[in-house]
């Protein structure tokens, strides 16, 4: 796709190129999201360390360009037309360290949740097992208050450090953060570090819980094709989960182009064969309409659609 890049943007991109870290201009977001759909972002920047990250944020915000922080891109769908945002991804080794200290696990923002679970297990620390199999990073999990098996990450957070849109570092204790179901008030911050408060537990017990959660996921959720996990949040006040509501509408197996409502878990739309973002989004709209018609319940997307 050709793009008219103004002089101002060119100056910004050239300043970002001068920082340490890696800048990819016109980054194809299908490569950086688990759904494997979507057009290019204006650029994708992977800072090498905190200083680059802060400098980049100051430059980007100072030029009134929107930022999008991504982890594994497991809960976002970028439209086919792409996005004028600059994407920040904390994939360098600096942001991917994790260490145990007493009952705490100190994690860089880019660390994958599975790595956290196994690090906790090696240190006989329990409480984070429910995170196993969530295909994201800890930073993304914090911003969206990710959860599974009746627990959410907010249950085990002690504090976080983040960079705000002015490029300043903030440290927030658990009580200073507002968490809701699959949401927080941290959406405008880049989470660079998280301390989790865990409890001493035998490795054997941790391992057995991890294995049972993995088995449950593999048996109930669709991992055969790219997806963004559950598309919709479970509706508040409904005895039925989003998956059950969609299932009871008879929508499993519904196809739109390359997009497919999983016949294993109805709240999964999978990219079965070279789907377009528009097909995923349109299939989600069909689901919303059908569930509203049948149950008078308005489903809300858990996945964020990015323009
Ligand atoms: N169900 C159906 N049909 C379906 C899918 C589910 O009848 O097609 C029924 C199940 O049999 C079960 C109930 O719905 O009785 C709930 O299903 P499940 O246990 O799979 O949990 P869920 O509420 O659909 C939530 C999270 C998942 C998380 C699982 C496991 C949300 C929106 N989803 O799913 O998270 O992995 O619990 O704890 O909160 C995600 O966030 O992307 C995600 C997949």
Describe this structure in words.
With 307 residues, this protein is of the alpha+beta class. It has helices at residues 7-18, 50-62, 113-122, 138-143, 203-220, 242-248, 277-295; strands spanning 22-28, 40-46, 67-70, 76-78, 83-89, 98-101, 104-108, 125-126, 147-148, 151-152, 157-163, 169-173, 179-180, 183-184, 190-197, 199-200, 227-230, 255-256, 259-261, 268-271, 304-306. It has a five-stranded antiparallel beta sheet with strand order 6-7-15-11-12. A four-stranded mixed beta sheet has the order 1-2-5-3, covered by helices on one side. It has a four-stranded antiparallel beta sheet with strand order 17-20-19-18, covered by helices on one side. The chain is globular, with a radius of gyration of 20 Å. Uridine-diphosphate-2(N-acetylglucosaminyl) butyric acid binds at residues 148-149, 220, 229-230, 233-234, 241-244, 247, 265-267, 302. Uridine-diphosphate-2(N-acetylglucosaminyl) butyric acid (EPU) is lined by residues 148-149, 220, 229-230, 233-234, 241-244, 247, 265-267, 302.
Write the layout of secondary structure elements.
Blueprint: H1 7-18, E1 22-28, E2 40-46, H2 50-62, E3 67-70, E4 76-78, E5 83-89, E6 98-101, E7 104-108, H3 113-122, E8 125-126, H4 138-143, E9 147-148, E10 151-152, E11 157-163, E12 169-173, E13 179-180, E14 183-184, E15 190-197, E16 199-200, H5 203-220, E17 227-230, H6 242-248, E18 255-256, E19 259-261, E20 268-271, H7 277-295, E21 304-306
Bound molecules: uridine-diphosphate-2(N-acetylglucosaminyl) butyric acid.
Residues 148-149, 220, 229-230, 233-234, 241-244, 247, 265-267, 302 line the site of uridine-diphosphate-2(N-acetylglucosaminyl) butyric acid (EPU).
